[in-house]
Every structure is written in C-alpha cells, then in structure tokens.
Amino acid sequence: MEKDQLDGLIALKLVARNRSFTKAADELNISAAAISKIISNLENKMGVTLITRTTRSVSLSQAGVIFLEQAGPAIDQIIIAQENIRNFGSKPTGTLKLNMPGVFYPYYLVNIVDSFLKKHPNIIVDIYSDDSATDIFEKGFDAGVRVDDIIAKDLVAYKLFGPVKFVAAASPKYLKNNGTPKHPKDLLNHNCIRHRFGISSGIYDKWEFAEKKKEFTVGVSGNLILNTSETIRHAALNHSGIIYTEIGNIKEDIRKGKLKVLFEKYITQSEGYYLYYPHRTHISSALRAFIDHIKEFKI
Fold it and tell me: CATH number for the 164-270 domain, one of 3.90.45.10, 3.40.50.10540, 3.60.21.10, 3.40.190.10?
C-alpha cells in the first residue's frame, strides 16, 4: 500500500468519526483543505465517493459506510500502533488535567496519583474537583472521571471499578428527633438535603431506588441545597437532614456509627466509575502513561 493511500484511510476514519474536516484536520495537525485533498485522492484511486459533502454537513456515502464497516477496525489498529510507536522510548512529560467528582480523589485516587508522580517525575497532575455534569473538554481537560450513566457514548471510557451503590443516609440524632423512614416514599415527610450539579445545572431532587429489580424515583424537598458531596456529608453529620450519596463518600461515617444507611432493601447502583476521554488519534504522553499506570491497580 502506498503512503498516500494509508494517509487517506486514516483521514477518512477521522472525518467519519468527527463528522467534520476541521476537527479531523486538528487531530492530524494539518489544514482542513489538506485533509479534503487527501480524501479526494483516495476517492479517485478507489473510483467511488466516500464522503458526502454539503455546506452544512459531512457524512459517509453508502460506499463509505460499507467500506468502513469492513476496514474500520483495521484502520483503528493502525492509528493506535502509530501512537504507541511514537511514544516508545520517550519519557512522558507535561501537565495532565483531570476533572472528577469531589469525593473521588481523597477516597479512591490519592494513592494511585502519588505512585504515578513518583514513577513519572516530569509530569504535573492538575486535578479539578467538580460534581457538575458539563463538557469538560471544552474547558481544556484531558480526561475525567464520572459514573457510567452520564458519560456520552462517543467517548472512550475505561472502567475503574464498580458497581457503585447510591444510598440515602442520616445521622442517628436526626432519626431520633424526626423518626426513621421505612420506605423511600416516606422521604416526602422529611427534610432532604439536595445536590446541585453546577451553577447552571438542575437540582438533583429525584432520588433513585430499586424494588424487585425495578427502579423508581422519589421526588424530595428540603431547606438546604449544596453543590459538593463533601458539604452534603458534613450537613448530614450536623443532623441537618437526610442525604443521598455514593456510599464511598460516607463509608467511614457508617463504620463509626455517625451515619446510618436507610432503605437497604431499596438500594440502587450504577455500573461504576469510569475514566473517560475523547476519541483522538493523538493523546498526550502524560494521559497515555496515566492510563497504563491506573490499569495496574484495583481500586
């Protein structure tokens, strides 16, 4: 295979994935005009139109769809192999910007990051704790950590651990003063501390439970709204009301008897926490090293 044909195959895959010449060109560090010419040359050699171009959109033609269904996996392997060999023998450097919920670093990641930095002294890890469900890549982050159900399907996601339980909990003093609810629907008669995910995001006031493998929600209300898992935990410890949180956030409080889990027969769970990042031909050497490092651990 000639080099320009190989370049054309990689360009075709990236344009199809991004639905954009500009975004694909950015990944290859060339101009949109250059990538358009590369694909035109490939189409001329193959004798078919692979990309349908309009002023508003870019999409695969029927021939392009059929071709990538058969050749796409092989092209992906070529892209990955190129990146691996490019990084072979070089020391990872640079700043790795990660976005994750506030609960995640102190409870799950602190030891992994510590060992990673000792192994890679030329890398700076910049972690921003954020419970909101926003587009972190528009803000310049390399990767993020979230539970599975809020990660877009077009991103690469590596499972860190799971499943993860989400529970309602309160302090013994709150329950003594206000009574212990027996069923999630009893939350309607209690002060529930709600979670706001970001300044412009909605309030999480439909708490999720499961009964006989069927999930259901309960709309809750209360006089206190907070925007981080840690502040919500402290409010519960201060007997302010009932909270709903990932169980790891209050594991030690449960063990010490400071908080009590409610509705154990109705607990729901997600598949787990995932490290996620965009589909890209080139990911930074720092992110590649972090992915390889984190695979060595069981969280």
Answer: 3.40.190.10
List, for residues 155-182, the tens digit of each pLDDT value.
Answer: 888 888 888 899 999 999 999 999 999 9
Q: Can you spell out the DSSP letters for the chain?
A: --HHHHHHHHHHHHHHHHT-HHHHHHHHTS-HHHHHHHHHHHHHHHTS--EEE-SS-EEE-HHHHHHHHHHHHHHHHHHHHHHHHHHTTPPP-EEEEEEE-TTHIIIIIHHHHHHHHHH-TTEEEEEEE--S---GGGGT-SEEEEEGGGS-TTEEEEEEE--EEEEEEE-HHHHHHH---SSGGGGGGS-B-EEE-SSSSPEE-EEEEEETTEEEEEE---S-EESSHHHHHHHHHTT--BEEEEGGGGHHHHHTTSSEEE-GGG-EEES-EEEEEE--S---HHHHHHHHHHTT---
Its CATH class, for the domain covering 3-87, is: mainly alpha
Residue extents of the structural domains in the chain: 3-87, 94-161+272-294, 164-270
pLDDT in tens, 48-94: 898 887 767 788 888 888 888 888 888 878 777 776 666 555 678 88
Among the four given CATH numbers 3.40.50.10710, 3.40.50.10320, 2.60.40.1080, 3.40.190.10, the one describing domain 94-161+272-294: 3.40.190.10
